[in-house]
Structure formats: C-alpha cells, structure tokens
C-alpha cells in the first residue's frame, strides 16, 4: 500500500505520521506543498501542525496551496484522504468535509489523551476495528467543531460523524467534551466516507513505551482494509 | 485604490474571545456593555482603478479566502 504525507510550511506531525505509516507497512512518500503532482497513492494524509502559522484562519492558506488541487481531485475521484488536527482544519477549508473548527470554548490550548467512540464502522477507516472506544491524543487550540443546523442535519442523516469525545466506557456527555465541539464531534467524513478529518492524533499512540497502542490498532486495521 | 473589508462572526456563532474581552472591560469599570464581538479588518491596496471592478474583485477574495462563509460575514467599505 502506498501513502503520501503532505508537508506544508509549519507542519510538525508529518514525520511522526511517516513513522507510523511505515511501521504498519505503508510505503510512504513525503510530498512538498508546492508540488503539483501527487504520487500514486492509496492514502493521502494531511498532517498536524501549524501550517502558515495559522494565519487568517487555521488551514485556510494551506487549503489553497498548489498540491491541494491534486488532493481535492484525488478525493473527488474516491481516493482516501485523511486529515489529522491541522489536516482536519485544512480539509474543512477546502470544503471536502463540512463545517469549521473554531477556537476552543475555554480559550486554552489542550494537550492530553482523550477517549473517542467510533460512531460509524461502514467505512474503510474503522471497518473491523474490534473496539468501540479508542484512546487517542489531542493537541490543539482550534478544535471546536461547528456547522450550521442544515449541515448538521445532513451530517446526521448521512451518518457522517466518525468519532465523538466520550469517557473510557463510551459515554458521550458534555463533561467529556474537551473543546466545546458540537455534539462532541471529534471527527467527520465526507458524504462518501473516503475523506476523514479528525482532531485526535492516532500517530501518537503507536508505541507502548511512549504512549498507548490504540493508534497501532487503527493503522493495522486501516492497511488491512485498503488491501 | 485602497479597499477595506470588515469580517465579522455570524450572529449564532459563539465568540469566546469577544466574551473574555467583554468580561475584562466589565472588570475595568465599563459596565454598560451588552456584548462584544471580535472581527477582522483588511486594507487591500489594488492596482485596479475602476471602483466597481475593484469591489467585485475584493468580493471574490472575500468569498474564496478572506472569509469563511459558514461562520463569517464580510462587508466591503466603499473606497473614498
């Protein structure tokens, strides 16, 4: 399986993602934002970080960079595109997934482990994951998911919510919502579910001695689903 | 020609920064404030000399980059 990680000026989780993808068997290529051509890929990842210093709105500049037209075309032709953290912010700015990510409700940068409940498994990202709840890491200042009522209705009708913030038993309540996200939304799909944007970082949970193993579960499962 | 743009958050969108500014002003003794909403201001100096054409271009900029229409409104100030 071939993957590509796009590096924007200010990306800082791109190499972590490279390590994670390679660890679980992807042949990964790093792609510079100013390139026009996307290498042949089974998965494209927009990594976390602070592309363009978060100027204007997080992800807004990166969403207009040269490579993104190829990424958008790839996504629109059914290609798997995953945006993590700043990558999610870039995805909403392209319009590939609906909504926006606002400043965290309590104006704090949040850096901690969270639990998320998988809301939908009828997709290549979470199909065959045994667990209902995964422990991932979040580190963001703008992860407060918001969309209009019309968009929310469409998202819910199409089952586009991927994961919600919850407690370790999968209970989705306000007290487990770290950033004020609408409906505890931590990640969403596009309508066809080949594009996933999420705030949590699975690539930070791939080593028992450093963190946890739930990222390993995610990546092992993902590469199997793509085969 | 210089054209100014003001971007504001839509009415229903929560503005935590505006809220904190409100609280701080309140604490400083400015106690008759109903609400504070924070926005953005841009000054665009363009080579275009035709007023209408320049405004149309700036409007396109607002829609494509300067504002996110899910949460923000834009207002173009007429160049004087």
Short description:
The complex is a heterodimer of chains A (227) and B (80). Chain A has helices at residues 14-23, 66-76, 86-94, 149-157, 214-226; strands spanning 2-7, 27-32, 43-46, 80-84, 100-102, 110-118, 133-140, 144-146, 161-166, 185-189, 195-198.
Secondary structure layout:
The complex is a heterodimer of chains A (227) and B (80).
Chain A: E1 2-7, H1 14-23, E2 27-32, E3 43-46, H2 66-76, E4 80-84, H3 86-94, E5 100-102, E6 110-118, E7 133-140, E8 144-146, H4 149-157, E9 161-166, E10 185-189, E11 195-198, H5 214-226
Parallel strand pairs in A: 1-2, 1-3, 3-4, 4-11
Antiparallel strand pairs in A: 5-8, 6-7, 6-9, 9-10, 10-11
Chain B: E1 2-9, H1 16-27, E2 40-45, H2 51-66, E3 72-77
Antiparallel strand pairs in B: 1-2, 1-3
Helical fraction of chain B equals 25-40%
The shape of chain B, in one word, is: elongated
Low-confidence stretches of chain B: none
* CATH arch. level architecture of chain B: 2-Layer Sandwich
CATH class of chain B: Alpha Beta
The secondary-structure class of chain A comes to alpha/beta
Counted beta strands of chain B: 3
Largest sheet of chain B: 3 strands, antiparallel
Helix fraction bin of chain A = 10-25%
- Give the end-to-end Cα distance of chain B, rounded to a whole number of Å: 9 Å
What CATH calls the topology of chain B is Mth169, Chain: A
What is the oligomeric state here? heterodimer
Residue ranges of chain A: pLDDT <50 for 5 or more in a row? Answer: none
Structurally, the number of domains of chain B stands at 1
Largest sheet of chain A: 9 strands, mixed
Structural class of chain B: alpha+beta
Q: N-to-C terminal Cα separation of chain A, in Å?
A: 7 Å
Q: Please list the strands of the largest sheet of chain A in the order they lie side by side.
A: 2-1-3-4-11-10-9-6-7
């Amino acid at each position: 399986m071939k993957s590509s990680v796009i590096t924007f000026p200010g990306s800082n989780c791109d190499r972590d993602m490279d390590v994670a993808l390679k660890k679980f068997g992807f042949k990964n290529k790093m792609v510079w934002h100013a390139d026009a051509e996307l290498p042949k890929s089974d998965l494209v990842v927009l990594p976390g970080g602070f592309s363009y210093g978060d100027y204007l709105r997080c992800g807004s500049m990166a969403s207009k960079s040269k490579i993104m037209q190829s990424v958008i075309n790839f996504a629109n032709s059914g290609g798997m595109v995953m945006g993590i953290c700043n990558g999610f912010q870039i995805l909403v700015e392209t319009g590939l997934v609906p909504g926006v990510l606002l400043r965290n409700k309590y104006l704090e940068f949040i850096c901690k482990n969270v639990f998320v409940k998988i809301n939908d498994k009828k997709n290549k990202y979470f199909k065959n994951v045994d667990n209902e709840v995964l422990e991932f890491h979040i580190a963001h200042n703008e992860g407060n998911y918001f969309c209009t009522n019309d968009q929310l209705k469409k998202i819910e009708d199409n089952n586009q919510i991927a994961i919600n913030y919850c407690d370790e038993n999968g209970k989705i309540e306000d007290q487990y919502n770290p950033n004020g996200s609408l409906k505890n939304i931590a990640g969403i799909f596009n309508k066809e579910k080949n594009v996933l944007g999420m705030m949590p970082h699975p690539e930070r949970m791939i080593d028992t001695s450093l963190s946890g193993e739930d990222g390993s579960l995610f990546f092992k499962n993902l590469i199997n689903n793509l085969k | 020609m210089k054209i100014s743009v003001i971007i504001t958050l839509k009415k229903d969108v929560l503005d935590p920064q505006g809220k904190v500014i409100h609280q701080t002003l309140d604490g400083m003794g400015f106690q008759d404030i109903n609400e504070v909403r924070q926005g953005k201001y841009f000054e665009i100096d363009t080579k275009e000399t035709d007023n209408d054409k320049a405004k149309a271009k700036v409007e396109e900029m607002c829609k494509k980059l300067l504002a996110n229409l899910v949460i923000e409104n834009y207002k173009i100030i007429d160049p004087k």
